[in-house]
Amino acid sequence: MAQESPASRLTITVAVMLAVVMQVLDLTIVNVALTYMRGSLHANSDQITWVLTSYMVANVIILPLTGLLVERYGQRTIMLWSVVGFVISSMLCGQSHGLVEIVLWRFLQGIFGASLAPVGQTIMLGAYPSDKRGQAMAILGMGIMLGPILGPTLGGYLTDTLSWRWVFYVNIPFGILAFLLMRTIPDGGKITTPRPVDWTGFTLMAVGLGCLQGMLSLGDQDNWFSSRTIIILTICAILGMLFFVWRSLSTSYPVVDLRLLKDRNLSIGSMGIGIFGLALFGTMVILPIMLEGLMRYEAFTAGLVMAPQGIGAMIAMMFAGRMLGRGVNPRNIVLVGIVFGAFGTYLTTLYNLDISMAWVIWPSFIRGIGFGLVTIPLFTLAFTTLKKAEQAEGSGIFNLMRTLGGSIGIAIVSTVMTQETQVGWNQMGGLINPFNPAFHRYLTAAGLTPGPTTWQVLGNVVVYDQANMRGTLDAFMLVFYGFLVLIPLIMFLKRPPGSAAGVTQVTHFGE
């Protein structure tokens, strides 16, 4: 792809950012509208979660195919069709009147949206000169980080002021503008003799990844392996992935070339981005529950309080892009980011029910700096040792691990919060009994008298909130440990050869 003029680069940047933010936003914007959707669609609390699950399943199935699709149809064609399909399926989601209907349209939305981020990343890198590609990655990274952070706030606002259907209709104007701008950008990535499609491998991959995503999404609400559905999904996921790995390693033209994982930087970088996804999406699950459920914040206020995390991430990403362009070792930037992220998360483990708003804002801002410093340099390190012809495949694997890491993080964090809240309830609730001398002293000091009403008030107000806070703190501690696990992984990554070589090679499908 030839170098673009500044005006063309601006057009490409705006078009790609609109498409990427639109797709990433839909990962979280729907969450806050589920309660309203449940009544309209005549679904119970378990069934309505398939609105989220179907989207994630489609994403993880299509993401590894990104390189294959680009080889056959080219970058611009994939982006145009993806945007058109995403907007149409968003419209169909908004007009849905039944559960089966919206689950089907959400699945199609996930299929069309899966390729937007990796292909958009490639288009931007091809449009920027070598010394500014770190800046291009930082700009795109801001869009990827902005989606999960703005999603709950925007979704809550649209649902409260209009209706839940507008969390889907909001994609229409952005999608139309992105489509019009993308028609003017040059194409690239298409080759004259693309490899044949291994449909057997694709089927095995779809079964394995789809069942894995379903298990992660439904595990906590179905009490994991006490549910026959979860057991069946787990068995299908294991068998599907085992046969998929065997097929990929034994055929000449696999759907996803797993042999690329022999590259140390790609394999370790993919593991790192998976753990990073756990920390990012895990945090985005914990904070809204704590702020709205325990601190009694309104949805819109909670979103505003969480916004400094995104601000910190954006500032850090721009800084990281400049440092990469000046030849700073990406591994050092990632390590500094881990320190910021771990410190900001550790501060949250000291929370209690009486903290001020400032105690939420500043740790979030510090943690956001950590997120921003980790993201772009980790992209750089993961792809710096891959050949250019291999980077299409590598991009699919890398982005798949980011999505799966987020799903695993949400599942683990939700389970920890649920189980530790129950443990706290059992322990503290057991102390509320007429035979506990300390409890009698507490009642006397509080001016209360023993009786059924007192037990009920204490159980619902004191024990419930405190038990949930305990579960929240344990979940934050899990995220803190996730940052620490990243440190030894990063130490095994090779430094990019040359001052900015890593930046020039990140996920570039071809020029």
From TrEMBL:
SUPFAM superfamilies: MFS general substrate transporter
Keyword flag Membrane: yes
Keywords: Cell membrane, Membrane, Transmembrane, Transmembrane helix, Transport
InterPro entries: EmrB-like, MFS, MFS_dom, MFS_trans_sf
Bilayer-spanning residue ranges: 12-36, 48-70, 77-97, 136-154, 166-185, 225-246, 266-287, 299-321, 333-353, 365-386, 398-418, 475-493
Keyword Cell membrane included in the entry's annotation: yes
Protein name, UniProt field: DHA2 family efflux MFS transporter permease subunit
Natural source organism: Acidithiobacillus ferridurans
Family: Belongs to the major facilitator superfamily. EmrB family.
Subcellular compartments: Cell membrane
Membrane-topology annotation of the record: Multi-pass membrane protein
PANTHER family: MAJOR FACILITATOR SUPERFAMILY MULTIDRUG TRANSPORTER MFSC (PTHR42718)
Domain called Major facilitator superfamily (MFS) profile: residue spans: 12-500
Example of a GO cellular component annotation carried by this entry: plasma membrane
Molecular-function GO terms, alphabetical: transmembrane transporter activity
Coiled coil segments of this chain: none
PROSITE patterns for this protein: MFS
